[in-house]
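Archive entry: two folds, one per protein. Generate the first.
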Amino acid sequence: MRRKSSSVRSGRRGGKARTAAKALAARQNILLRWHPPGRDGVIPPAALIDGAWYIGDGRSAPIAYWDGVSETFHTLATNSWSDPIRYPEVTKRTVRLKQERHVGAGGTFAPRRILSSAA
């Protein structure tokens, strides 16, 4: 009789398999890494003003622009070594526009204070 592998017996699927448990673990790791517990004062999504700039905690920048239509924050991220082949040689700096969702919706930006509102 053939014996089942340990991953089949325990019900775990590894590698590139997508499961609800892996997605939940990834969201929890994002929250723990970028937004440690004990830091409250996050502005809820319903109170955000479309077109306003916010100061907060984000993965790529501490300042972000709230786009109410797409319900995402837009941040600027810079990278000094854009060419992995030439690393660690510092090459031309690149600037990218990134989108981050609100931390309350499983994203990575936590707005704490409004910087300026839309005119």
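Generate the second and append.
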Amino acid sequence: MTPFDEETAKFALSQLLRSCGTMEQLLEGLNDSKGSVAAEVHAIRKLGKSLRGGFALFRLEKTSAREIQAVGRLLADSRDAVSRLSTWEKMSFENDDSIHPPIAELLNQQVHSAAQRPPAEAVAWCIDRVIIAKKNLESLTAEETLAERLALGLKKLNNRIIKRCRDLNHGGEEEFHDARKALKAYIGALGFLPENSCALDPRMIELAERLGDENDLATLSSWLEQHGFTERFAPALWEEIGKSRSKLRKSAMRDAKKILTPPKEEP
């Protein structure tokens, strides 16, 4: 368990509270957005993922972290639409003239539709979630010191990564999704600690990005099925997606094994 003093814990707490304030401001900005709503929503959801890691650091996963998760889910349509289009464009799939145009145009249409500002009532509900999350953090009991809570929270996050990396050997859809969430939470949590207080293994960042790419393809696959572009009607497309996902999964499993292998000590 990484030792922390109260000063470090208070620093993390203050950073977390400050980031909550930033999220409130970003949400309020949606009501009179003059720029790209999609970009603003992306910033909010990205910050939200870090916040969830920060709250898990203080062992508030079942309270504050879930409040922030609800915000991300409410705003998911906008970001998901952009992500699907981006993933499709990266694939550069144009092997079937009968499939490419309708998919591309539908994805573009949904991006434009998702660019609308969310209703003010929805934004207000999101802000309430952030306020409640902050109050939970501010009202932590004195049953243990903040430093103790922080150390236990970080240990739990680290243990979860180890478990999720081992689970990747099963190769199931849920295992890859859970591993990505565990890595995002851990990486987000470390961002609230003082610089150099806890080293982040760069291999975790690489694995998280690889799992993110795989998740993007999974999300696009689900959308394709829901809109009728199944393997029956687009076999070449599904073959390409299958190959890409298989390659990413194999790479992810190799990266996970590296994380599970302790670094060799220098003589």
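Annotation attached to the second fold: The two ends are 25 Å apart (CA to CA). The chain is about 75% helix and 0% strand.
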